[in-house]
Amino acid sequence: MALPVSLRTSVIPQELELVACEQLVEIVPLVAMERTAFISGAYGPLRPPSKCKVPIWMAANLKMKKKCHIVPPEWLNVEYLQDRLTRETTEPQFSEMPFRFAEIAKVLLDVASDDFQNSDRLRSLLKDIREARQAKSREGLSKLDHSDLNLPNLCAIEINEIRPFFVRAMGVLTQLTKDPAGQQMTY
Q1: CB 45 within 8 A of CB 34
Q2: Is the pTM of this model over 0.85?
Q3: Domain DNA replication complex GINS protein PSF2 N-terminal: where (predicted)?
Q4: Contact 40/70 with Cβ under 8 angstroms?
């Protein structure tokens, strides 16, 4: 969702991607490596061709050096995403997706598109899902009521996009519901 500069006080998408890179993903290593300790934890040992779970940042680094193949997460396939797109376009509520699906998918598809079947189709489906969810967000914000707000299954990047607008809107609603004496009015 494109916002004016004055409303962009949230975390930028690249920072959200950095946070998402702490999520674990399965890889198939192409090189052997002993267990290695990092600040975020110890990972390994890597023994080809056995699968191993490592953070996305490590998987991306190994992939760029051609030392592993990344195993796609169970939700990052055409059938699953097509089902979610259908739900997004036919049901009023947000469909359940991993909390950082957009960030994880972007990083993995940027680094390891050759490890995914139909990577172009995956990108297209992800874009369509994001657009459908953004449309729901905009529609929901137009019906904003300060007494009740329920947005289940909203993801990290979507929360980040609407946060500045939401904070300002709540401030305006609070000002509008005060009586002239400055006391909060109840309805």
Answers
A1: yes
A2: no
A3: 13-71
A4: no
Instruction: Give the H or E element holding residue 53.
Output: strand 52-55
| pLDDT over 70 (residue 111) | yes
DSSP class of 148: B
Higher pLDDT, 179 or 75: 75
- HSE at residue 137, side-chain half, CA atoms within 13 A, is 20
Instruction: For the beta carbon of residue 22, count every other beta carbon within 10 angstroms.
Output: 12
Q: Write out pLDDT tens, residues 86-107.
A: 999 999 889 999 999 999 999 9
Helices 101-112, 13-20: crossing angle, 10 deg rounding: 80
Q: Which among 146, 132, 184, 160 has a CA at the least distance from the CA of 10?
A: 160
Domains defined along the chain, listed by start: 13-143+152-175 (3.40.5.50)
Q: Does residue 5 register a pLDDT over 70?
A: no
